[in-house]
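I am writing to request your help with a piece of structural work I have in hand. Thank you for your consideration; the sequence and its tokens are set out here:
=====
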Amino acid sequence: MLIDGIGQTPYVPTTTTQPAAVEPGTPDYYRQRYDDFVSRNPGVDPPDYYLEYGQKYADRFSSLDDRDLSDEGLAWRDKTLVALQQAIEDKRISDPEGFAELERDPDAFRRFAFETHPDAYVDSGLYDLPAQDLLVIAGTPDINDVLSQEGIDQSLITGGELELDDVPDILLSTGQQYVDDNGILAFTPFGPGLEVGTQTQRLWERATEQSWMPPGVEWVVAPLPTLDNALPDIDLPGPLPDDVPLVPFL
């Protein structure tokens, strides 16, 4: 029975514990954050960002190796992963109750997380990388994520942080990666073609990971030319005469 003059206050579920700490840089960081939310909020939808973006791309970028990215690119990946996760932990530490409330609004949490991306990318050295790495990085996320409103916004902000002083660094590292990719052939007419082939294969492998690619199809990529097969065979007219001096280093 209600007492006259006293309204009925609707029940609002509250968490019994605060969000737990998760160490940034942990391979399954986003999975742990997801599990922590579920344990504190039974029956409540968790932020989709944790598994559908954070963990998905932590796993996908972690699968890249030195065939896909330069040493600097791999270091950038690792540093960026920690920076993205640290931004979430900083939010939790600064206001545990507010963080817990933010988690219960998946759309708001996704916006918050995406807003941390540009600084994490740039501050980790994005614009010190060669163009080859930048293309692989750009081609790794699913196109539907890139073209989402959050994806477009973060791309515009990240691109807007490119400064004129960054261009020489990108060009220098791009040239160095070209030489690393092709060795001595980089200085021959075959070099540019080999580099196009190498980069095409890198991007094709990223494309086969896209969600729109047909599942269960084994894509076959033709092998790239190597030093052994890149140079054409030259048929000499016949054995050299005995009086022709040989080149000492042959």
